Amino acid sequence: MNIPFHRPHITEAEIEAVAAVLRSGWLTMGPKTVEFEESFRVRIGSAHAIAVSSATAALHLALVAAGIGEGDEVIVPAMTFASSAEVVRYQNAVVVMADIERDTHLLDAGRLEEKITPRTRAVMPVHYGGLPCDMDRIMDIARRRGIAVIEDAAHSLPADYHGKTVGIIGDFTCFSFYATKTLAVGEGGMITTENADWAERLRSLRLHGIGKDAWKRYSAEGSWAYDVTEIGYKYNMTDISAAIGVEQLKKLDWMNERRAAVASAYDAAFAGADALVPYGKREGRSSAWHLYPLRLNLDALSIDRARFIVELKER
Predict the structure, then answer these.
(1) Domain boundary among 210, 230, 252
(2) Are 125 and 151 in contact (CB under 8 A)?
(3) Active-site residue, from 32, 115, 164, 181
(4) Is the pTM of this model over 0.70?
């Protein structure tokens, strides 16, 4: 069976939105990006939303805004994509790997404090597969120990944690809009935060450290003059990507319902299969179902994991 790497739900609405941007002559960050940020902010319920070029960029900027620097320690779960740790090294900080829960692959909040030292400055819970981490315990520990919480929510749009949408819990929440994600624009990301000062700085950092709304200097309402207030990065989103994002956001809940239905079908299909251990669930937390992880019970199999994968490809 030939299963594609990804298949985003793209319709004429996205195609026409991109065409409209192309016809406008304004391709880079501009009014469509602002529209996407505001629509996303309202959907999540956050005070601020800052669009960037990727979730990796979002995580990096969050570390910068949180003041993470050389020698600081950042706790990252052992089960995650490389970018979670890479961005820590961008800041010459130290990656401290923490253990995960066996059934969910999420950061084990019960063992988090074991990893905290006087040099710990932040923790990065990753909502693996789409299921939120134990944010109550993580936030309690972080507040008591004075460390920042930077949520890696690349998998978890839209996920819910005890009635709260992921995106309004930690100090920073970083989302991914990569081609395979639950909202796909090709390449893109978003940072949400409740802190106005951080939001203003993030907007500047994403575009070379230029003052906020720097793109307006090219429009009729802007000015040619601008200041570069600090060393920044080239992490801005384009209006082409934002146009896709605006349309994808309109059907976010419908797409989530479809994934949840597929996950339920998988649950039923794999029930009673001794060799397959489905992803764990937690009361009060709803997954975005970016992934449906399965763990192999090798004791119930006559082949190893590598051979299992090969045989799947042959079917």
Answers:
(1) 252
(2) yes
(3) 181
(4) yes
